[in-house]
Amino acid sequence: MNLIVSANTSLDRILVVPGFQVNRVHRVQSEHAIAGGKALNVLRALRTWGDRQSAAVVAVGGLAGAVARKLLEQEGLDAACSVVEIQGATRQCDIVVDSQAMTSTVVNGLGPALSPEEVSALTKAVNHGLARQHFDYLVLTGSLPPNTPVGWYAGLIEAARARGTDAVLDAAGEVLYYGALARPWMVKVNRAEFWGLVEAWARGGDGAADQGERIDRVARALVERGTAWVIVTNGAEPTLVWGREGRWQVSVPPLAAAVNPIASGDAFLAGMLAGYQRFGRLEQALKWATAAAQSNAANLLPQVAETVELDRWAASVGITFHPVQRTGGDR
Fold first, then answer.
1. What is the pTM of this model?
2. Is position 48 within any domain?
3. Which three-class secondary structure state does DSSP give residue 251?
4. Domain end: 118, 139, 160, which one?
5. 3-state class of 33 per DSSP?
6. CA distances from 305 to 77, 237, 266, 309 (A)
């Protein structure tokens, strides 16, 4: 059971534009709208697999926010959402899918600036959710609206820990940096986001010239500080995972027809949560998460395969384990 925080909710438009090019006038072939943001993508995937206990704290405002709420209602997700009304308008994001070149171009809105009172209301809503019932995981995923303190996720991680709830972090930039310092149970990001953390982690230099070595050092440092799993996805390239016992490399099976990979990282995160709660083992959860990401990329809109089909996808995922090399004095 998960409590998912959607601080920077969006109204997403998916525009299918065959032969899309810059500096040209285009007419869309089809247009779709959904209530978006990483948190809602995670909730949506969990509901597909029958999860009716996970909940979300969702900040929305303005006309775009009203439309997003209506779309959540149409999907049947509204009952799982505790809404925090804000004064500013919910951001809008456009995803342009070129159905000929099979590419996706994303323009993300910044989001409304929050007042201190609105940040406080969001914090209270999350703490109220944690106090009202026990959640296995507090899921902190996505960007924060302007004026939200960069350490906001870090504070929620500590609050969740005090109540016996593990935190899962998927963020970028300074929000990721300060959140990672708060020792969440899991950090799951893509390679570009993690590289930003690596650079912030060793501003004075760490003596490692190789990018892969620097990534490895920071991931191991996070594990040593108390994070159980550090997961770095990299599109079609292998996913890397660090834990106390060593490092795992997860192969990503080739996808015959990737339609729209946007939100596949969110599907992966949802798959990790559901897979770990279902199997209780890291490797099986990683296979399920990888399969979830692949199934999402095969669809135009954020959508994952049902459980039975996902089990078949997961069977083709390969994992290689590299144990920690300990010195004689560490035995």
1. 0.92
2. yes
3. coil
4. 139
5. strand
6. 18, 21, 14, 6
Helix 116-132 to helix 152-162 angle (10° resolution) is 20
In a domain, 165, yes or no: no
Distance of CA 253 to the CA centre of its chain: 21
Exposed / middle / buried, residue 40 (Cβ in 10 Å: 0-12, 13-18, 19+): buried
User: Is 177 part of any domain?
Assistant: no
The strand ranges marked E within 125-281 are 137-141, 166-170, 186-190, 229-234, 237-243, 246-250
Chain segment 232-265, per-residue pLDDT in tens: 999 889 999 999 999 999 998 887 677 888 888 9
DSSP code at position 210: S
Measure the CA–CA gap between 318 and 321, rounded to whole angstroms.
Answer: 10
Question: What's the CA gap between 143 and 145, in Å, rounded?
Answer: 7
Least Cα distance to 179 among 163, 161, 191 occurs for 161
What lies within 8 Å, CB to CB, of 38 at 6+ separation is: 6, 141, 142, 170, 263, 265, 266, 269
CA 72 to chain centre: 19
Can you read off the two tokens belonging to residue 170? Answer: 């998927």
Contact (CB, 8 A) for 96 and 20: yes
- Per the structure, the count of domains in the chain is 2
Residue 304, in any domain of the structure: yes
What domain range is 263 assigned to? 228-331
128/255 same-domain check:
no
Residues 82, 57 contacting (CB under 8 angstroms): yes
Domain of 260, CATH number, reads 3.40.1190.20
Supply the pLDDT for residue 204: 53
Q: What is the pLDDT of residues 147-181, one digit of tens each?
A: 999 999 999 999 999 999 999 999 999 999 999 99
